[in-house]
Specification:
Number of strands: 33
Shape: globular
Distance between the termini: 47 Å
Structural class: mainly beta
Strand content: over 45%
Helix content: under 10%
Radius of gyration: 26 Å
Largest sheet: 22 strands, antiparallel, barrel
Length: 654
């Protein structure tokens, strides 16, 4: 791999992908669709790769509910503007085994992992356009289009964009993502194909935070553009582009399927098809990523050391990663009240690639073995009223096991094991108990780095995480609650002087969560409460309590032609030592000088829905300046002041 041109690799991949698509028989466009989509063509569904197999596709209905539309971007820890580096107010889940460059706080935006990839099942073309406009040139645009080509091939396109100037100097963001997916299942259920191509770009100006917090806190009416910032000419750029393809070849008993022509004068047509019982799969992906930081002025005083260039900083890291997997899946149709193995699979995976950072050249290659197994202890089919609910499984009692282990290579000994026990009732009630254990080599960024202001070589030991959770859901009561515990083994972090460090021991974070939706006539109260017990001195910093509340009234007017909601959203967390942010490394780091929190963010909004159109008007952070100016999520990076937002969503289904 070293020295092989990136353009050549992408050309090879796209040649393979194109050949796979062209291999789809032309007759596929004339056969009956094998996806279990309801006859009602006004309903639209999607599925993820993990819920797809040659025999069945577990669909989730696309709903266009009115409530929640105004909450178009989740409040997370960030540097003060939409599109900036973000992370969640919850414990961190370490990556799966294999190579990882390090945490990217722009991964929330774009299509770079399987959980963000949606494949569609539609009878008619489906298009959704979402646009939000706000003060300081804020623009959020999301476009999705999906349609069938013939009866068995679906293609989809996604475009997302975030742009905002922000309230403070050098805070502008400009993020763009493009995504294309396709899914195909052969009419005889012999062959199936999923593909995904994506490109994401994040261009973010960096200001290092405001120079003096008192200028913000003691002068609430001050023009934010007059408050000085620490860095005046820096920018972060992250690019990622990639492609992914997964092919299935199914095996099973042959049978005949009778197809009615819809005309009694014409005889029915009979075709041969396969009832899949097992399948071989081939999965291939390639990803190319760039991480860059520019600053044309190194004399700002924020850099304590200059190693290479005193005139400007131009730090960059390039990562090329390829992944190939081959495996076998067992697929079984389960009769009611069966006790058996309902799913099983084994596979082998090869990951390899290279990373370049200044004078550091790193190559890696790993061989991973993986296996999964599902036992079904009791199974019974649902009634029609629950056939397309969004809960994940058909009614039954399940035990799921998954393991992944790096047999040999750069990260030999890395592993992941998952155990899940779940009980699903026909009415949607669910109980689940599970545990995940991950052990892996530290991310590359913690061990090696060479830049204009930071350099290190570390020999850290493997890190691990045991995450155990027990949760229950009462479907009709709209209640979900659970207990969980995170036990980190030798966790890694960046200390207060921006250097990587490792805790010599374990860090335990027990917690609980409750999600509840209450409705009484026109009155609604939606609550999300998260609790984590963690010491102030821990090397992972999150609030002890995080609360999200939404109170609103809904009305149906003009003979059900118009729906309207008016309400308020409240976000609150308790005080804690919120992290600092290092723009040069694009990493959050510890600080123990000041606590932040105990401040509610209140948004007031009005939403309406007229058939396929939804519109909202929102005054975000309504209480800005009324309860003190201490609204930080990150030290030296105040959150936005009061701002008016307007958004709309339009659905086209023809």
């Amino acid at each position: 791999m070293p020295g092989m041109p990136i353009r050549f690799l992408f050309r090879c991949f796209f040649t393979v992908a194109t050949g796979a698509i062209l291999a789809i028989p032309a007759s596929a466009q004339k056969k009956t669709d094998t996806l279990p989509t309801p006859v009602d063509s006004s309903r639209f569904f999607y599925f993820t790769a993990s819920r797809f197999s040659p025999d069945t596709v577990l669909l989730t209905e696309i709903t266009h509910k009115l409530h929640g539309f105004q909450y178009y971007h989740a409040r997370q820890i960030n540097t003060g503007n939409i599109g900036s580096a973000e992370k969640a107010f919850s414990p961190y889940i370490i990556p799966a085994p294999g190579f990882s460059r390090g945490r990217s706080y722009f991964d929330y935006f774009g299509y770079d992992n399987l959980r963000n990839r949606k494949f569609f099942s539609v009878k008619k073309p489906y298009t959704r356009i979402v646009a939000v406009l706000g003060q300081k040139q804020e623009q959020v645009i999301a476009i999705t289009h999906a349609q069938n080509i013939g009866k068995n091939l679906n293609v989809a396109f996604g475009f997302d964009r975030i742009r905002s100037d922000g309230f403070y100097l050098r805070q502008n963001t400009n993020n763009t993502a493009v995504n294309m997916t396709s899914s195909f299942r052969g009419p005889g259920k012999r062959y199936a194909l999923l593909t995904n191509f994506y490109w994401t770009s994040a261009d973010v100006a960096e200001n290092g935070g405001i120079v003096n917090d008192e200028l913000f806190e003691d002068n609430p009416s001050t023009n934010r553009q007059l408050i000085g910032v620490k860095i005046s000419s820096a920018e972060t750029n992250e690019r990622k582009r990639g492609a992914w393809i997964k092919q299935y070849r199914a095996f099973g008993e042959k049978g005949y399927d009778t197809i009615s022509r819809g005309d009694s004068a014409k005889p029915a047509r009979v075709r041969m098809k396969v009832a899949p019982r097992s399948a071989l799969y081939l999965e291939t992906s390639i990803e190319d990523r760039d991480f860059k930081y520019f600053d044309t002025d190194t004399s700002s005083g924020v850099y304590s050391t200059i190693y290479r260039d005193s005139a400007e900083t131009n730090d960059s890291t390039h990562l090329l990663k390829m992944d190939n997997a081959f495996g076998w899946q067992y697929l079984r149709k389960i009769p009611p009240r069966d006790f058996s193995v309902s799913k099983a699979g084994i596979g082998i995976r090869h990951q390899f690639g290279k990373l370049n950072n200044d004078t550091i050249r790193t190559t890696f290659s790993d061989i991973l073995a993986e296996a999964n197994l599902r036992f079904t202890f009791r199974h019974f089919l649902p009634d029609k009223s629950t056939a397309h609910k969004t809960y994940p499984d058909l009614p039954g009692i399940y035990l799921d096991l998954f393991s992944q282990y790096v047999v040999s290579g750069t990260h030999a000994g890395d592993m992941k094991a998952i155990t899940r026990f779940s009980f699903q009732q026909a009415n949607g009630n669910r109980l689940s108990i599970g545990a995940d254990w991950t052990q892996r080599e530290p991310d590359w960024l913690y061990k090696h780095y060479s830049g204009n202001h930071y350099r290190w070589q570390n020999d850290f030991s493997k890190t691990g995480l045991l995450h155990a959770v027990a949760e229950g859901e009462l479907f009709r009561a709209n209640l979900k609650a659970g207990l969980q515990v995170f036990n980190y083994s030798r966790p890694l972090y960046f200390d207060s002087v921006s250097l990587p460090a490792q805790l010599n021991g374990d860090l335990l974070i027990p917690g609980a969560f409750v999600n509840h939706k209450l409705k009484a006539g026109w009155f609604n109260l939606w609550s999300e409460i998260q609790y984590n017990r963690i010491a102030d001195t821990a090397v992972i910093r999150i609030p002890e309590l995080v609360v999200r509340e939404s109170v609103f009234a809904d009305f149906i007017l003009f003979k059900k032609a118009l729906m309207m909601q008016i309400g308020a959203d409240v976000f609150y967390h308790t005080t804690y030592y919120a992290d600092d942010y290092n723009p040069n490394l694009a990493q959050y780091q510890l600080q123990s000088s000041r606590k932040f929190g105990n401040y509610p963010f209140v948004d007031l909004w009005l939403s309406i829905k007229i058939k396929p159109v939804r519109i909202f008007v929102k005054m975000e952070h309504l209480n800005s300046g009324l309860m003190g100016n201490t609204y930080y999520f990150t030290q030296h990076y105040p959150q936005n002041d009061r701002a008016l937002k307007v958004g709309f969503s339009w659905i086209f289904n023809d």
